[in-house]
Structures are given as structure tokens and as C-alpha cells.
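Task card 7
Instruction: Convert sequence to C-alpha cells.
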Amino acid sequence: MIKKSAKLLIIILFLLSLSCDLGKDVSDDEMIKNFQNNEADFERLRQMAITDSEVMRIDYDFTWLKDDVSFPRPKSDKDLSEERWDEYRKLFKKLKLDNGIVNYESKKIIFFSVGAKDYMYASEEPSPVLDSLDQPNFNRPEFEGKSSKTLYRKLKGNWYLYYGVD
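Output:
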């Protein structure tokens, strides 16, 4: 089951990386300012994702359920109402989240997707946490032989900037 979950996370992260414009990278400072100016809305979005935990991926024009990532799919009682989805879309736009969110509940991680660099809420501190992600260096000993590489920068509490490559 854990291997299956890990594979699903890798697939999700890969799909997110395909959907982002790598030339559109924003600086840490821009992202930090956006977070500080909108912290209450980021927290609101996080709470919404926890409430709607059956929906693991929410974007502007599609959603994935924990047990069904097909889209379109027949309407289910687990799906978001149009009103709720519109609430997500408004927050995505306000928070400049180009690719919505991924709620990886089993790992207690929620990704708030901007592009190549994202916001992340994690219940446990990830590693490695760096002072800056503006010029990421993935040539680190802990990444030796690994295909997926991730760096983090702490924002506040359990909030981080996330930068990953496959």
C-alpha cells in the first residue's frame, strides 16, 4: 500500500511539473510576500482541502477523487458542488495558484501549485530545508542516485516553499 501511495505521489508531482511553465519561476521573495499578504486565505484554503479530503486534486477545470482520478466522470456524492468549486477557483486566482492544489492526506501534505516552485503545508518538517530556492542546487549528496529531488524553504509554522524536479 505504501509503494502504491508513493507511486501515486510521483505521478501527481510529474503531472504538476508537466503543467507548469518552468520559465515562469517566481522568486522566493515574491512568493513570501504573497504568502504574508494572504496568509489567512492560504489557511482557509488548507482548511477547505481538509474538509473536502475525498477530493485529492482540485484545479480550475478538473478534480480527482481519492478513489477515482478519471475526468470527466459521473457525478458522485464525493464531488465538490459547483458553489464550492467556485470558492476554490476564487482563492486560486487571488493566491496566484496556477495549478490548484493536491491534498496528499496520507502523508499529511498539501501542495498549493504555482509552477516549478510551489507552496506546501506539511505536518512534519521536510528535508533539506534551505535559506533560498531561487537558484536551486540539486547536486547534493542526499540526492545521489535518486531521480526525484526536492528542496524546501520554511515560511512559517508548517508552511514551506517547495521546489522539486524529476
